[in-house]
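[agent] plan:
  1. take the single chain provided in the ticket
  2. run structure prediction with default settings
  3. attach structure tokens to the ticket
  4. add a short note for the reviewer (M.T.)
[agent] executing step 1
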Amino acid sequence: MFDFMAYAFMQRAFMAGVIAAILCPTIGIYLVLRRLSMIGEMFAHVSLAGVALGIFSGIYPLVSALGLSLIAAALLEVLRRTSRIFADLAIAIMISAGISLAVILISLSRAFNADLFSYLFGSVIAVTVSDLKLVAMVGVVVLGLVVLFRKELFYIAFDEEGARAAGIPVDLVNFFLVIATSLTIAVSMRVVGILLVSSLITVPVAAALQLGRSFRQTVFLSYVYALAAVLLGLLFAYHADLAPGGSIVMVCILLFALSIGIKKVSVIGGYSRVKA
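[agent] step 2 finished; step 3 output follows
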């Protein structure tokens, strides 16, 4: 059943998927708790524009996606701070800018080819050694940022105004969170695909929130769900010749539905015991 791990390209895809499965919930838990899940969609669209820019200009697409995502992160903060635009409206504007730029660049470069589709939907054979090295390096940076600001992120996630009153540099921490999110989206899209990568950030966390009884337990469960989704998704994609992104996210959805079912059964069981 797991004979696919004998192939080098599957080993690379699996290692990149594991890194993505660790990074996405690490960032996702703070985005979901702060109701900023749409930031993932924003960076996915911007990353698509970055890939299109790379194909059009001859730059390595993953590098151009990273660069454009960092620029978008800075622009998002500028919009929120200087233009008095609400966060959700600023995100909507950046999504519109990202998708329109992507469409223009794709049209100019006539880039509707297999390489673009591998970025859109993920590919088990497209992950190169260079991709894996870049994903690993960015993963270290993102985890380093989260570890560095873990206490501040925790405080802000539950009480932003209280964090400001306590002297925490909320704007600075928010900026680094946005940067970490942009980097996570850009590197995870190689396996999951641009169109579905934001789902790996939010759905495992949403599933974990159904059963987690503490912040630490919720984070742990989100890692378990994300890793299980990547492993099973790649397994299904390999044996059924499917795009891995759809398989991985569908497993996430099934795990989410399972978590809701377990929660309801637990609630009903607890109510029955109390009544008895």
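[agent] step 4 note for reviewer: The CA atoms of residues 111 and 262 lie 45 Å apart.
[agent] ticket updated
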